[in-house]
Amino acid sequence: MDSVLSHRSLYWGAHKFAHSAMDAHARHDQEVFLLHAGVSIERLTKAVLSKTSPFLLMELKGNDDTLFQLAGLKELTKVRTAGASQVIGRLRAMDVLPKKDPDLDELIELRNGVAHLLTNSSESFDALGTFARVSNTLLPHLDIEPAEFWGTWNEAIEIALSESLAEVAREIRGRIEQAKYRLERRLDGVPTDAVDIIYGNANDAAEAGGFGVRVQCGDFSYHSPRECPACRCTGHLVVTLPGIGATPEGDPNRSFHCPLCDFSAYGVDEVAAAGIARSEVFFSGSGEPLTALDPSVLEEYVTYGMIDHSGVAKAVQVFAEQAAARPTTS
Fold first, then answer.
1. What is the DSSP letter of 123?
2. What is the dihedral of CA 304, 305, 307, 308, to 10 degrees?
3. Contacts of 140 (CB under 8 A, 6+ apart)
């Protein structure tokens, strides 16, 4: 494979454009910052895909030249890979990035706008915070520490992230209030007995969705019942089990969804801002606290070749680390 498509080459390209973007930000050159930050994100996403499998970089149209190059059958002077939106979509399907991230979408759109002389950014959009957050989400999948990637800019990035996290908290508080309002409108004038039935049906729907270990498209996750912070109905706290099946390596990702008020939070930061701590106990479908994962629940997947025993050990480790992170009480 041409080295230009290796994850190391893509990483160093991302590193170069990240530092160029930060230089431009310090000079208040917003256009260059947006352009180079977007290119850095695109190369980081491609580096993560390439580290998993270079074939994930393929553009799903046109001729087979790139396929032959990735397979080592041809040497080409021009390389065509998937675009930023398609690459981000693949990482979302792999649970490396949150399923929904409007700020990331806007950053890429602004990058494209600069390229086509159509930049139109709102003053409230935190481009630096988004750039920092998404980059730091991707770096663990390349076994890179943020301080190594950002170098002399690391302190500035940490400050940007602290401000960005405060913005996430404000966004989540607003989303919770919106969910409460929608539910109040829906239940306005409904008799108390009927409200109880609606809540009961919603709880049943959450349970029917299935708690415990679940597999979708080869990705493994654990679904824990959790009270919704907006309406107190039972929702799904979903935690990925990284490094097993098709689930990429890295830190566990998290999300939450309520079937009654439709409140959702995507990603570690949003879930934490919703009041669901990383150290919070998981529960079984029957509501029992689950501090350790019984490896036998994964044996069926081992039997069918979906994971191996090392994958089982990694899943068990996620639960062990969760238990270790909980504060002890005296």
1. T
2. 120
3. 249, 250, 251
